[in-house]
Predict the 3D structure of the following.
Amino acid sequence: MPDSRALSHKVAIVGAAETEGLGKLPDTSMLELHAESALRAVADAGLQMSDIDGFATAGASPAQLTEYLGIAPRWVDGTSLGGGSFLAHVGHAVAAITAGYADTVLITHGESGRSRVGVGGGGGGSATPGGQFEGPFGLFGPPSTFSIPVARHMKDFGTTEEQIAAVSVATRQWAEKNPRAMMRDPITVQDVLDSRMVCWPFHLLNCCLVTDGGGALVLVSEERADDFPKKPIWVLGRGEATQHTNVSMMRDFAFWDHGALSGREAFHMADVDHSAIDHAMFYDAFSHTPMYALEALGFVEKGESGPFFAEMRTAPGGDFPMNTNGGGLSYTHTGMYGMFAIQESVAQLRGESGDRQVDGVETGIVHAPGGMFSLAATLILGNQ
Amino acid sequence: MADYNKPLPMPTPETQEFWDGLKREELRIQQCQDCNQHYFYPRSFCPHCHSTNVEWTTVSGKGTVETFVINHRAMGGWAEEVPYVVAVVSLEEGPRMLTNIINIEPDPEHVQVDMPVEIVYDAVTDEITLAKFQPVTG
């Protein structure tokens, strides 16, 4: 069984710095305090910011800080244990570095505890970058925010509203086979286009459900994995990435590049190629998110996801079974749906998916955006 | 203007010059003196090369629509505005800003990705002027 002693003396702190000023800093926002600390610690180590490929913080979110710092880590940790967070981050970084999840980890703290600059104020975050540079322009949650990139995809690649609607239609066909799914009535592309406009180009049936529910997972080491009633489902690969938090700062609206980074990490760790994947769960907050996932993960070339979905290849009977529980669009969507995507991948790998079971599933992929495309995470799971 | 009922920004020390500039009807953006790239939103260092050798510059206020949505569902002060266009505009100098495209029919037949736009200074309160954009005139 793995023993934490194996990680002793394996990882060292090579840069450390505080902000130049301390005490009362009314001219410096919370994010600037993080940033100054980061730049000074990286300089102390004789490194460049571009060397950082792992990032942890608390107080602010890792996504907020990676945007502010202009970095693109492939391992992130936002564990929040109050004042003890950064001790925990060091411990997590030891595991991450020894596992190969990151080579160079930066951990930052910054807090305008006295002057309260840039920590939100009375307006619920109106002093943050999002509060200053996005909030005033009428964004209202996921439907208007998650959808910002898609017009660029439509322009660059000729992607049509009909192709995007096909994602909803194929996913509904799976939900028809799932008695636990909330929405099970068949729909057509025209039904999607005729449903109420929420935020162009998205109609109601392009948008995920809003539900209540939950899920959980238990993981153990290889040595104990055969001591349980169900056959073990192995974590073959994992990836994660974040580059921005405000949607306007997404680096490429037509291609989810940190989704690609997360996917590359997972495929590298699993040491499998795309042909090994039998089953996919691509988080469908809206019907374009699986399209961006398909391209980011490299299952198709950039711009090819529209025709791919229009051919109904992800529907029952297709050659790329995806979102076989009915997805966030038709099964359930509590808000942080990723847990349900993992649950369906496990169920398919266990052979427990009933009428919707895909034959011969040995290797599955789960891929999710978080926070309006600001984050990405990938798992590759297997039953062999 | 006292009855403005939509979210307002709260400037921080690092962003104050941007907001002060808009109030004067100038678009003020920082430019890195080492890698020469402009960047947005304001901060004390260049997010491209991480140099702290940065300066404020006044830029043209011209750009193109990078991407957009037309929102049909809103609350508060925005409810009476629907449908309205939320867009990301790419400035001539490079940086992108989230904004509204105004003085245009909120319809995908009229709003187009890559269409040229120019800044409109919208003084929504005595303190805050927002940078909005409209189709290039003339």
Notes: Residues 16-135 of chain B form one domain. Chain B has a mean pLDDT of 96. Chain B touches chain A through 50 residues (CB under 8 Å). DSSP finds one helix and eight strands in chain B.
